[in-house]
Amino acid sequence: MPSTTIATPPHKKKPEVILIPWDPESLEHVERLYQQRVACGWHQSDVEEIWRDAQRRGKKAIQWIVCI
Question: How far apart are CA 25 and CA 50, in angstroms?
Fold first, then answer.
């Protein structure tokens, strides 16, 4: 089976990703993550009960992913 290489045309910019650490002290970050969990239908109670503390202690590394 011949291999195929897909190249990005020179005029097309490769997608970039920026990672923004989730701040467990930011009420805006906490609320936004909670709302995402509600929309997904799972683990919304973990945001307050588990994830905030785990992020503070360095046991979790939650990041916002921004594609540009």
Answer: 14
Residue 7 has pLDDT above 50, yes or no: yes
- Interior angle at CA 63, CA 46 and CA 42, nearest 5: 30
- Residue closest to 65 by CA, chosen among 17, 29, 32, 27: 17
Residues 6+ apart with CB under 8 A from 9: none
Amino acid at 30: V
pTM for the model stands at 0.70
The H or E element that residue 66 is part of is: strand 63-67
Helix (H, G, I), strand (E, B) or coil at 10: coil
CA distance 29 to 52: 10
